[in-house]
Queue: 2 jobs
Job 1
Amino acid sequence: MSMPDVRYCTFLVGGHVVGLDAGVVHQVIGRVPIRHVPLAPAAIRGLTRLRGEIVPVVHLAATLGLPVGESPMTVIVRARKGLVGLSVDRIESVVDVPGADHDRVPSSVATQAARYLSATAVVGDCLMLVLDPAVAEDLGGVEW
Amino acid sequence: MGAFRREASVGDLDGIVDEFIVESHESLDRLDDDLVQLEADPGATDLLDGVFRAVHTIKGTSGFLAFTVLEAVSHSGENLLARLRSGDLMVTQARIDALLHLLDVTRAMLERIEQTGSDAGYEVQPIMACLNSVLGDDEVTIAGAVAPDTATVAVPSPASSPESSRELSPAISTAPTPAPEVLESLVRESSVRASSVRVDIAVLDTLMRLVGELVVTRNQLVRQAHVDADSVAVATALRLNLITTELQESVMRARLQPVGQVWATLPRVVRDVSLACGKQVDLVVEGRDTEVDRALLDAVRDPLVHLVRNAVDHGIESPAVRVAAGKPPRGTVTLRAGHVVGEIVLDIVDDGAGISRTAIAARALDQGLVSAADLDRLTQDEVLDLIFRPGFSTAAAVTTVSGRGVGLDVVRAGLERVGGTVEVHTTLGQGSRIRLRAPLTLAIAATLIVTQAGLPYALGLTHVLDLVDVDPAAERMPVELVAGAPMHRWRGSLVPVLDLGVVFGGPSTVPDDAPRLLVVVSAGGAVVGLLVDDVVDTQEIVVKPLAGPLRTLDVFSGAAVLGDGQIALVLDLARVADRHGLRAPISTGIQPNNPAIPAQRSITRHVPVPDDEFVVVTVRSDDRVAIALSLVERLAEVASSDIDRVGDSLVVRLGAEAVLLIDLTGGAPIDPHAAVVVCRLRGQRVALRVLAVVDIVESARSEGAWPGAPAHILTDERVIEVVDVDRLVSEAAGVHA
């Protein structure tokens, strides 16, 4: 599988290390209040405020079908149609992964998660799941 | 400098000319790019459409600003574009060259207009020849059609002025490479462009957002300063407070402009178009001071010109036809602007011939927009909707005025881009009304902030009618169960009660032990009691649309950041009521008009009341007429002391509001009370005096599918005339409208 060298921001979500292309990460804002929106799809945590803008926040674990925890941290990513927040359990670090170190997503990965994964890579002693930035385009399974 | 000379030649049109120049330059800059892209991708019809429209706009505007030479040149360009668009001609390099050349010539002419105030004497033969040469056979190239020797034509130097030290190249060439003058015009900053600063709306948006955030930070600082009891910090915070408030207001104002600004050119449009068509037309404008968001103003500018032009060209009949139809020879086009909660409404009304659905159908068939089989299946409204199809034109001939097929499709697309709508109402023989609605995206909404489960929600203050304490310890509970449904007795009628917690999918908490608050609101024409945990205060908020999939949650119309930094969701009360099956009720009994009741300020009907329900009233002994229920807001009884005569009209006091009263009874004595039906029409109230309310019936109109049209309904084998409230108001109101 041929991939360019990529710099990833890594997070812990539902017990997995996931990586998101640093290029689409707008800001790691950590713990911020998230305003619950009644009647919203389950994968949507709510809304948060980012310098006067109101940004929807997606529950990443729920979207990927991983065990849902408290996920107190928020990462803001640039989606095609605006900024979107992703709720994660923990902010890890920034890693550079050479193109050759990328692997296919194993076919054994649950289909719901596989939909949003573009590759895997071994980072240190962990397997990192590379998130397709499109995960932010597809909020709670609804196209927008 | 340019402005000085222009003032002498075009007088008060100065500002319009400046604007025309600035805007044309902007669209020309874009067209350069579009044409180059089009050359690379000849199949890009949207690009071609865009170029066509831009050239069409320049042609139209230069036409009514009397720049006839520029108009003629753009007309030729438009001809070529029209044929490219229809597929009649192919996009070739030679044609793109000719069009690019047209852009350069247009720039040079604009430059000249800016310098001398006129385009007279500009030598356009070369460009015309160039454009015409590519209209024919694909083999002909520009070089072949226009010999280089004849292509360079001397242009007299523009009148020199004491202030101007610039020299213009005296020649313009038709060769595809820009001539020196053209180049100069590209490079040199035009004086008009330098004198006005055009700020990108996005910049204003960012400013607005940052100011909002500043307000939140200020609030935190002010709170902290008080907590710390630091007098210097408190004083500083207060000053910051004042400055921030002022800054916020200024930024907000920067985005708002009176709608009259886009209307400035319209009297001239009406005049010129009516002269060109041999018609007599008066333009009436109402609400020119209505402030509109800048972005919206830009979006409606072109549609308005198109629509007004259409109204004169297609709507108003010639004087002879009008007289024959029993109308005054002069037609009237009325422009009306106003705010309705969260929306701006712009009406273009003409008292012309109306739009014939039969003619539309025939025309659409002619132009191949629909097949005969399709046409058979369309409803009357869908037939009317055909006028919004791209390429549709009712004009028999292509004139310089209109009828190019650039029209309602563009209008609708433009409005939809800003989240608006276009509605057409028409009555054959009586005229048409085109209504543009658009949200005031940046409107500062006055709201009541309530909480439910600890989270804040905003209700439009204009919808709030009353606040009632719901204390379980009280003698009589304000919320009672009527046949299992919670109801509240409010001013003599029962209103349904909705628990906001239930709206959000929670369990019913009625009856309940905890004290709560009942907010009586008007929601889509219905009065509903909304049970909430608490009421916080009223706040002016900047409503932002919900992002992405949250937009499908129609019970919320948006979200806003409150003064304390919390995010409040704005409730769309009409949708909430609709979701829970609460439609506009109408109490059949006459309610006493209690002067202590604050007037309901404004109600938007998001949920249309079906058009086939009518209030039947008696007006003279047993004469019955029907009033469309969709117009009726309430029934009331007023005392003679509440009725005043103002000039030639009657006015009735309803709460704190004075409402135009139209007496349908022909002056029956009032003792001591009179029954009135309060209607709402285009955001205005009007009270119709009747003898008595007889019934509410469901019946189909015999003709007409819009409120207020003259029509009849059939009930109990009686034919009852439907009151044309719209017409009554225009007849009776005059100054009150």
Job 2
Amino acid sequence: MNWWQRLWQRTKMENQLEKELRFHLDQHAGELTARGYSPEEARRQARLAFGGPEQFKEECRDARGTRWLDDLFQDVGYALRMLRKNAGFTAVALLTLALGIGATTAMFTVINGVLLKPLPFSAPNRLVTLQEKTDWTNQYGDLWAFAYPNYLDCKRESRSLDMAAWRYSGGTVSGERGAEFVDGYQISPDMFSVLGVTPARGRAFLPEEDRAGATPVIIISYGLWQRLFGANSSAIGMTLSFEGKPYTIVGIAPPNFRISGDEVDVFTPIGQESSEDIQMRDRHPGISVVARLRPRVNLTEAQTELTLIGRRLAIQYPDSNKGRTFVADPLRPDVGQARSTLWLLLGAVVLVLLIACVNVASLLLARAVSRERELAMRAALGASRGRLVRQCLTESGVLGLTGGALGIFLADMGVHQFVAFWPGSLPRAEEVHLDWRVLLFTVAVSLLSGLLFGLAPALRAPARELEKLLRAGTRTLAGSSRRLHSGFVISEIALAVVLLVAAGMLVRTVLRLSALDPGVKTGNVLIARMALSPGTVTDTAKIRPAWQNVLDRARSVPGVQSVALVDTVPMREGINELNYSATPSIASVNDLPNALATSVTPDYLQVMGISLLRGRFFNGEDRAGSEKVVVIDEVLAQNAFGAQDPVGKRLWLPGTSSPFSAGTDAPDTVRIIGVVRHVRHWGLASDDQAEVRSQLYYPFAQVADPLLRRWSELISIAVRTNIAPLSVVESLRSQLRGATGDQVLYGVRTMDQLAGDSLAQQRFLLLLFGIFASLALLLACVGIYGVLAYLANQRVPEIGVRMALGATAGDVVRLVLRDSLAMIFIGVTLGTFAALAAGRLLVHLVDGMRPAELSTLVAMISVLVFAALFASFVPARRASRVDPMRALRQE
Amino acid sequence: MAAKSDLPQGTLDLLILKVIALGPVHGYAIAQRLQQVSRDVVQVPQGSLYPALHRLENRGLLTADWNETETGREAKFYRLTRKGRAQLETESASWDRLTEAIGLILGMADAEGGPR
């Protein structure tokens, strides 16, 4: 029998033990009776010879080797009885713990899903991402997206890695139900096998489908399959029109299949891409590469091989590949800013949990002091010190686990709220749910909290100076726990100060940032991305008229005041940087300053409400063939020309990146015709810290013809309305559908929303820190009240003496308050130091935060001190009402 | 009771194993046999036999079944396991060596001191 069987059969074993011993006694007595003893005498003799049966039973139980489990059972039962008996104490302690553990569990659930869970591919730890690395660095760093030919060479030559490539390629899917814009990837045929994923229906691409001129085939997402085909298996083999071209559907991706970031709806073979630039080793569009380490190969070996391949290619293609190698890094989920935010919140939540633990510890300690006589009695009856400590810890463990169980319920509710409130969409949100990892975490946290708050009371259990304890009244025992109690209050106050100051800093930040002028008038502006008809973009000659047509038709929509086209919209994702020079001699492109470049149509200034400071903005005369012109913002003006008037001056744009020309290396000379106000392009919170703030506008009409198609794919339409902006969306959509009905608007936002989103992280943190800080304040006040009430109660006899000797009620209040003031003072001092350190962390992690200002500190600390004094005033008052006679008689 | 402290550490286990080695036997019979065989020299409270039995059982030296006695009552009969038998052999051997050594030492003292 192993130990759990024994445990299982505890009752049975008890019965058998009883039976065995009884048999012995009966047998002995029987024999004695046979020898002539009277039955009573025989029994007595047998018992005498046997010894004390209870003692031997105990020893037998010990011999079983499951003693500790029996004890645990006993202790748990005892603990449950004690908790039930003190319902009030239990309720407060459990509620406190449930809140602390619940909040911590909720945060951990999110962190687990977003940051810790492995990617949903088979053996994800064998997957790596590959990038190109140069031995030089510029403002973008030294890591680059792969060139497709480099990828093909690496893939062919590598013996250690199985590689697959992908590249974004969204487009318009059209059919009888109208057209819609979907996100898509071009992938290499082995993408599914490298990731270890099988299509839900149909098949992956075949190698022979991965070349120009092969039959157009497409794999669609599970979601699109349900949306367009009602999850009908007959979709395989059917035709889907994507970007105006018919594709045969060969497969359906598994549900929630994500290569990186969001789910995309269509996959096409990357080898069928016909544009020339993808075949280039420089000035290429860039692809992403994921690879799986072959069996028995480690990352270092793969890296060595990649370096060798890189060196060989550098010799073979010196123009593009000199100083260029390839690096492999473990594949990690791309979660962007969420990482720091989540850890920050977990930190805050742990502070709340600590306060909760301290609170429960002080409650338990107060109870332990009043239970000291009980414990002393048990020690006197033979319980060892270890046994008593164990029993106390069992009690707090039971309390912790029960609190944890309640906490899991709270967490389950809280997590959904959290994900829903997360600004934008939480990366990997689909992975966020309670699982065994979370349960394990909660059990660990519960037990750890139990240990934390149970330790202090448990260590008081040792029965030192036993008989003194038994003889003494409770009063004499109080002194030793005093320091511990003050310690609890001090640490609670210190922790609360940290959270309060952090919340205060966030309030200041959000208020300050919200009041900032974004540089654009955000009210009544609608922004939508727009995809021209696939039939139009393939023909450069049709593109400009098509956009003109879009502008004209949009202007005719009722409620629309003015319309413009723009490629990169302020405060939205996506930027375009451009080198510029204020002198004609361009030494090295890498040394030139950068500006955010935006291509727009003439009405842009009007639509966005950006103020013109000098000169003029673009008009209809600025078109292809006329003088190349730009408008700059005040920051660029200041950077490039200082106090001089920049209007009429010229800038030189390096040929490699200038949008005014394509395929030449000669710089373009452009004239500055106006200066406008700076726009907070990076968002309200981040613009001040951004590295590139200078802005430069150029006319969409002057974009070089060969670039028109690529530019068109990035264009958004910006509309100023005189009615609620979202109400014109439907009429805009139908007006802009185009002759073939496959021009689509997507990604519709208002500028107000974009401006709000740029502060969303700060607001979200403020909301949560606000909640945590309030919780901390409340818990700390409850803790202070509890401790002071307890301490004051312990001092009743002393107070009685003082009052009998002539102290007034006011003296007593002062006496009690002096204690609490001392604790508050120390707590606030320690807390302030901790808060300053935590504040530095916040400044580091959150855009737009500034170090805690004195006024914030003073304000938040006053709130705490006021609340703490209020909490201590109640017990102080009560102490002052002590009846001296009764207090003295209590002696 | 006084004999309890006279019994060297571990000897009770050895005695029990030896008694049980003769065949399946219940606790009361073990107690009786110990007293008879040792001619009442070994006197322990009979109850102290049981913790020892349970300990040996837990260590896998003994195994036990509930069977009927000749009088028709159910009793717990102990048997040696293979491990128990091996243990008995090594322990008796080391006990023999010990007693022999002690006997030698005592005999030697006699020889040197001569008759008193």
